[in-house]
Design a protein that fits this description.
CATH architecture of the domain at 5-99 and 170-252 in chain B: 3-Layer(aba) Sandwich
Number of helices of chain A: 14
Strand order of the largest sheet of chain B: 6-7-8-3-9-10
CATH class of the largest domain in chain A: Mainly Alpha
Structural class of chain A: mainly alpha
Number of strands of chain B: 10
Radius of gyration of chain B: 19 Å
CATH superfamily of the domain at 5-99 and 170-252 in chain B: P-loop containing nucleotide triphosphate hydrolases
Structural class of chain B: alpha/beta
Radius of gyration of chain A: 24 Å
Strand content of chain B: 15-25%
Order of helices and strands of chain A: HHHHEEHHHHHHHHHH
Largest sheet of chain B: 6 strands, mixed
CATH class of the domain at 5-99 and 170-252 in chain B: Alpha Beta
Oligomer: heterotrimer
Largest sheet of chain A: 2 strands, antiparallel
Order of helices and strands of chain B: EEEHEEHEHHHEHEHEEHH
CATH topology of the domain at 5-99 and 170-252 in chain B: Rossmann fold
Strand order of the largest sheet of chain A: 1-2
Helix content of chain B: 25-40%
CATH superfamily of the largest domain in chain A: MetI-like
Distance between the termini of chain A: 13 Å
Shape of chain A: globular
CATH topology of the largest domain in chain A: MetI-like fold
């Protein structure tokens, strides 16, 4: 491929790695602000510890070191594969995280795909006649989706579909019961998450399409006698996709936050809920790694957005590579 | 005698979209502006004239070479000496619609230099602003209005007033007429000539219009692709140009008959 | 400015939105008045009258501790609007300062600030907020009471929001600064000897104000959502102080006994945030020279 493209990818990767490194320090710092530290918890569990014991334990765990040296120590062991143990689960963090990560990926993945599938066609359709009834309706729906407090939506859905109608379960993953049960358990969380995400994507798709349709080249194509559908799908949409793709990738971070709330409401054992529980339960190691993993996900999404954008932008693709 | 303002081997490159990757805006440019004269800097668009103007005022950094104000290197000026330089050398830009802050009233824009240099109190400043407006042919009442209430020609007058309010020695005029209608151009040019005489100013007049240059300049410098191709007294340049490019420029000027100012030269 | 307001007035839905918000603000301000009228205090626990339906003394019924719902909703409105506005303003101020610094310093300074901004954007929002909200203020030298007190709670959340919410405005302002710094009037100011500070605040900022205002209006809605989530999770405004979010905390258990309790706070959040978004959108549309009347 082209030399310049490879260089671009390499530099973005490097940048991402550096940002991740810098953020790992920030996250480490913030986790340290959580109430209590491991020694305090030990003391409350074992009141017979003497001040000498405490001092000794502190030294053993390296808690009497200044922040940056503790950070470096942690970084060292993290990079060599040792991510510490989770206090809440009494198992290594890596072991604990696996299933949670999978669950969250399933939830986020399904919602993501669903919202794209719904939002893009609707956005295109709405842009067809801005100001029409259909457009206003779709726009209203988008606004509602964006403004909806996710946790309340989840509650409402539980009330209607679990309590009143008993169609779907209100919690868990239903893994034990086979394929059908798993889908049933996922329904409500996915719907909850999807509505908000769809709202966001819908807004951007619609405005990107309207923006694009206004441009002169569209008029030129219409003048050639092309049908409206052809104009929209074949010409306007690919051009509108550029900003939309960026938004899609950037909304990933928001999707994770939404997933956290959704998982908490539905008692869904995912990463988001794990982070919440670990913060509330003072499980430093787990919270730290959880947050970092979420950061990695968001950074990866941003990187994908950049690369996709560069790939789609004809100016860059067909640009000078002499 | 030391020149009032001088460029010494100025070079500036931009990282641009050209195949080679860089655009050389200024290529070892040396030029001097003597006190009291009007030096016209002529050339096509992209020849580097505006870049030179900005470099001479210290508004753009250069890659090598120096811009001098008297004996001092502009880049080394700080504090009081820098402020003195700012008071002494001013600039008028090409686009009258972009040279005034749309959010400030004309009065505030004109008073700003006084505020920056701590000159006078409220009343004194108001007086000076009125004076400045009147000296360019506008009225004192215009101070309260916003820039968009004025035409291009009027805005250029305001820009000139702003340049004059600190009592400078020299003014760099970066294509001050190019964005104006032809009849207005004449008015502004006359105004500039008057002001020069009244206040004993020195002008560096940048233009692509050779006719204008011939009408007002004592000396002419010709720029092409970032270099000063030729420089000399006005009449000599026109009657006995030495460089090929200069000759081409002059030949491109359509002459509309004796006694009338030549048209746009390109 | 006047042209802007005129154009804004042509966006009918935005006018409705603003009217709604003003009405809400009015009601919120009158919360103590209403409390007096009904003879009900926000925190008055009355275990003999739990989960009551609408009545003359309690127009919207009572909650799980017998407190009047309407009054609590109104006080909750105070919290939401206050946090929304203060948080959004704080985030905008921080973002504007950083954006100006980045856009005007160029080169190294800009690159560093932008990388930092990218880094903060990359952090997952809600987990970050949770960590910040759960943070122990004594560890950075603030007193314990600061964290839990009514006023402290408001301030604390606003600060937290400002700490993570500044990035959008920062990018916006940086973009505007980069564009505007090449304008002739900015160059003229520099040629006159204006300091960088002066250029930033007299020339750049006023001309970038429009988008900043629009972004801030939109931010208010987001901040209200954030506050409600945090309060819902028990990390924001603590009971007995009322917040729409913490009124929903026990909603799951209350669903059978009194579904209205779960409904009202959520509807209010939804309505208020929609209004903020529509109003912010209206401002953006008013700024866009190509907008046509609705």
């Amino acid at each position: 491929m082209r030399h310049t493209v490879l260089r671009f990818i390499a530099s973005r990767l490097l940048q991402t790695a550096l940002v991740l490194l810098a953020m790992s320090f920030v996250v480490y710092l913030l986790i340290g602000l959580m109430p209590g530290d491991p020694i305090d918890l030990m003391i409350s569990g074992n009141p017979r510890l003497t001040p000498d014991d405490v001092a000794r334990l502190r030294a053993v765990y390296g808690l009497d070191q200044p922040l940056w040296s503790r950070y470096l120590a942690w970084l060292g062991s993290a990079l060599s594969g040792d991510l510490g143990a989770s206090r809440l689960f009494a198992r290594p963090v890596l072991e604990v995280m696996g299933p949670f990560l999978v669950n969250t990926c399933v939830l986020m993945g399904v919602s993501f795909v669903l919202s794209i599938v719904i939002a893009i066609p609707l956005g295109v359709w709405a842009a067809r006649k801005p100001g029409s009834l259909a457009d206003r309706g779709i726009n209203a729906f988008a606004f509602a989706g964006i403004s909806m407090p996710v946790f309340w939506l989840g509650l409402m859905l539980i009330i209607v579909f679990s309590v009143l109608l008993s169609w779907f379960p209100a919690s868990g993953t239903g893994r034990g019961g086979g394929w059908f049960d798993a889908v049933r358990s996922l329904m409500l969380p996915v719907i909850t998450l999807t509505i908000h995400e769809t709202g966001v994507l819908l807004r951007y798709t619609r405005s990107a399409m309207i923006e694009t349709m206004r441009q002169d080249f569209i008029r030129a194509i219409r003048a050639k006698g092309a049908s409206e559908s052809w104009v929209m799908w074949r010409h306007a949409l690919p051009n509108a996709m550029l900003p939309v793709v960026t938004v899609i990738a950037l909304s990933f971070g928001g999707l994770f936050s939404g997933a956290l709330v959704t998982e908490t409401i539905f008692a869904y054992p995912g990463m988001g809920r794990m982070i919440y529980d670990s913060v509330m339960g003072n499980d430093f190691n787990l919270a730290l790694i959880g947050l970092l993993l979420a950061t990695v996900l968001t950074l990866a999404a941003n990187l994908a957005a950049d690369l996709l954008y560069a790939w789609l932008d004809p100016r860059i693709r067909l640009g000078d590579d002499r | 005698m030391t020149a009032l303002l001088a460029a010494e081997h100025l070079t500036k490159r931009y990282r641009g979209h050209a195949p080679s990757g860089t655009v050389t805006a200024l290529d070892d440019v040396s030029l001097s502006l003597e006190a009291g004269e009007t030096l016209a800097l002529v050339g096509e668009s992209g020849s580097g004239k505006s870049t030179l103007a900005r470099a001479l005022l210290g508004l753009t950094p250069v890659d090598s070479g120096r811009a001098r104000f008297g004996d001092a290197d502009i880049a080394t000026l700080r504090g009081d000496s820098l402020m003195a330089f700012r008071r002494a050398v001013q600039i008028v830009f090409q686009d009258p619609f972009a040279s005034l802050n749309p959010r400030l009233s004309v009065g505030r824009s004109l008073a700003e230099p006084l505020v920056i240099h701590g000159i006078g109190d409220r009343g004194e400043r108001r007086r000076r602003v009125s004076e400045a407006l009147e000296s360019v042919g506008l009225s004192a009442a215009d101070a309260a209005r916003a820039p968009h209430a004025f035409s291009g020609g009027q805005r250029q007058r305001i820009a000139i007033a702003r340049a004059l309010i600190l009592g400078p020695e020299a003014i760099v005029l970066d294509e001050p007429l190019s964005a104006l209608d032809v009849t207005i151009q004449r008015q502004i040019l006359t105004l500039l000539a008057q002001l020069k005489q009244q206040r004993r100013l020195t002008y560096l007049f940048i233009t692509h219009d050779l006719g204008v240059a011939r009408a007002i300049a004592d000396r002419i410098a010709v720029m092409h692709h970032g270099r000063v191709v030729e420089a000399g007294p006005t009449e000599r340049i026109f009657t006995a140009p030495e460089q090929h490019y200069t000759r081409e420029l002059i030949a491109a000027v359509p002459v509309l008959g004796a006694g009338r100012r030549a048209g746009v030269g390109r | 400015m006047r042209a802007l307001v005129d154009r804004f007035r042509t966006q009918r839905s935005a006018i409705v939105a603003v009217a709604f918000l003003l009405l809400l603000a009015l009601l919120a301000v009158c919360a103590p008045l209403v409390a007096n009228l009904l003879g009900a205090d926000m925190t008055a626990v009355d275990l003999y009258h739990r989960f009551e339906g609408p009545s003359l003394t309690h127009p919207l019924g009572t909650d799980e501790l017998g407190r009047d719902v309407l009054v609590r909703l109104l006080y909750g409105a105070r919290v939401s609007l206050a946090v929304g506005i203060i948080g959004a303003l704080a985030a905008s101020v921080v973002g504007t300062l950083i954006g100006l610094a980045a856009g005007l310093s160029g080169g190294r300074g800009d690159a560093v600030l932008m990388r930092f901004t990218d880094g903060v954007i990359a952090l997952p929002l809600l987990p970050l907020l949770i960590v910040l909200a759960a943070a122990d203020p004594t560890k950075i030298g603030l007193s314990e009471s600061f964290a839990r007190a009514g006023e402290g709670g408001l301030l604390r959340i606003s600060i937290i929001v400002a700490l993570v919410g500044w990035t959008t405005v920062a990018r916006l302002v940086r973009g505007a600064a980069l564009t505007l710094r090449e304008r002739e009037y900015v160059l003229a100011a520099a040629a006159l000897g204006a300091s960088r500070l002066r250029i930033a605040f007299v020339h750049i900022l006023p001309n970038a104000a429009g988008p900043i205002v629009a972004a801030t209006a939109l931010a208010v809605g987001n901040v209200i959502l954030i506050e409600s989530v945090l309060s819902f999770l028990g990390l924001g405004i603590q009971p007995p102080a009322a917040s729409w979010g913490n009124m929903l905390t026990n909603a799951q258990e209350m669903m059978m006994s009194s579904p209205g309790l779960a409904l009202y706070p959520g509807l209010l959040i939804l309505g208020t945030v929609v209004a903020c978004n529509v109003a912010g959108d209206g401002i953006e549309a008013a700024l866009d020279p190509r907008t046509t009347t609705e």
